[in-house]
Amino acid sequence: MTAAARTRLVAGCLAAGSLLATPRTAAALVEPSRAQADADAATREKGFTFCTDPHRPLSGRARALCGIAGDIPSCEGFAAACADARAPERWVLDLSPATRAAIGWIVRILAWLIVASLVLALLVPILRVLARSRRSRAPVDPEVLPTKPARRDADVDLPATTDEDTLLERATEHSSRGQYGIALQLYLAASLRALDKRGALRIARDRTNGEYVRSCEDPDVKSGLQDIVREVDRVQFGGEEATREAADRAGRRASAIVRGLQASVMALAAATLLGCGWSPGGERRPGDDPAGSELLLEVLRRQGLSAGALEDSLASVPLPRDGERAPAVLVDAERTEMDDETRAHLLEWVDAGGSLVLAGAPEAWPDELGATAGVSTGPCTVNARRLLARTRPSTLSDDDDPGANARTRESTAVYALAIEHGELGTRAALAWPKSSERVAWFDDQASYAAVMPLGKGLVLGIASDELMTNAGLARPGNAAAAIAILSNADRLELKIARPEHGLAPPTTPLTAMSRAGLGLGMIHALAAALVLFLAAGIRMARATPAAPPVRRAFVEHVEAMGALYARTNNAEHALAAYARFAGERLRARMPRGTGDVAALLASRSRLPLDVCERVWKRATAPNDGAPAGDDLAALKELSAVYSAATAQDR
Amino acid sequence: MEDRQFAQTFERIRGQVARVVIGQDELVLGTLVAALARGHALVEGAPGLGKTLAVRTLAVVSGTAFKRIQFTPDLMPSDITGSSVYSRDAGAFTFVPGPIFAQLLLADEINRAPAKTQSALLEAMQDHQVTVDGVSRPLPAPFVVIATQNPVESQGTYPLPEAQLDRFLFKLLVGDPPVEVERTIVRHHADGFDPTDLRAVEPATSAHEIVEMQRHAQKVRIDDAVVSYIVELVRRTRDDKAIELGASPRASIALLRAAQVIAASEGRAFVTPDDVKPMIPAVLRHRVMLHPDAQLQGITADDRIEDIVRGVPVPRLDRVP
Question: What is the pTM of this model?
Answer without folding.
Answer: 0.51
